[in-house]
Amino acid sequence: MNSQRSKVLTIAFYFVAWFFGYGIRYTLGIVAPALMNGYHISPKEMGYILSGWTWSYTVGMLLMGPLVDRLGPWVVTAVGSVVWSLSTLAVPLVHSPTSIFLFRLLFGLGHSMLIASTAVAISKEFLGKERARAIASVYSGNQVGLAAGAMIAAFILVNAGWEAVFYFVGGASVLFAAAWLLFYPDRRVGARRSSSAAQDGVRDWLRFFRYRSTWGIALGQMGYLYALGVFVSWLPGYFVLERKMTLLKSGVVSALPFWVGLVATLAGGWLADRMVGMGVSTAKTRKGIIGAGMIGATAFVSSAAFVPQAWLAVLLLTLCVGSLRLATGSANALPIDLARPSEVGTLSSIQNFFGNLGGVSAPIVTGYLVNVSGSFTLALIAAGAMATFGAFAYVFILGDLLPQFRNTSQDSNPGQGVARTATKHIERRTSI
Questions:
Q1: pTM of the predicted protein model
Q2: What is the pLDDT of residues 386-410, one digit of tens each?
Q3: Which of 65, 148, 261, 298 is deepest in the core (most CB within 10 A)?
């Protein structure tokens, strides 16, 4: 059993990693109205620029999952954090939309290892009954990054210009990368792999697609990250362009949904582990929390699309983000529940590759809809529709999580899984 100190440090380091990853994501959303004005960029063009990091991030996920499974979280996260930090520092050195887009591509590639690294690290350190809280605690860092990043970026933007925003957040992220290299608790390179895992390797990861539950978590994440992607990319622009707020005010107001999202993320993780501890099945717990959160998000965002009052729109969108974030711990614990330890990173990458097909589409589709209609009404309705699609996939396509298929003899840490299953047995009776 790993020490409590190691568990605390693992959560702390990944919390900060997610803080910087999402904080840097959001900086471009904060400065987007200023860039649109300065470079005469249309909403449609800005949609492409805002989506820039997600293209490389999405493709990179398929590479990073097996890489983390093979090399371990420490070295892969170290390299990724250096890449995302330096690519952020480089943005102000160029002054064309195309160059900004290219550096955001590089940022996305560095950032693409974070989900798989987190899943592998949590699977090594935490028991099944602790897992949703651990995932939620780590992922709450992205909500703090979005909320604090919005306010910090808006303040720097108004007082020092958009270039200073990237210098500040990029420089701070470099310091984090140095701390990670020196102080992360498990600095082993490579992962202990069972003989059967070594034979399977990463060469035949496509076999995951034979199973119904793989499609359930993949399509569910697509709907979830599309809806979330609309807010991460366009929320400040929505408040400026649709609700006529100032840049500074939009930065402050844009932080509110993510502060609520922080509380909801932690609450969702606590509730999930509490229900499992009380004897509710893992499958019912995960599906119930995810379904309720995403359907609630649909109701709130669809209502926000039509209300005339700015304050009411802020309230409804805040509740929408909070509802989405209730699902975070449960949704991101599912690959750990389903896969054996040596392939957690791979299955997590598959889930989030499809998820980010939704995420990469969100800013582009939103930009097109705003450009065509002249408002965000259709864009918000589309976000609600995708949240409903994701809820359906998680609740009805995802099969049971079958504990009778646990095979702890293949675990590197026996006793740590809810369903540590040889991948060929992943939910056999629910496979397509």
A1: 0.75
A2: 999 999 999 999 977 653 334 433 3
A3: 65
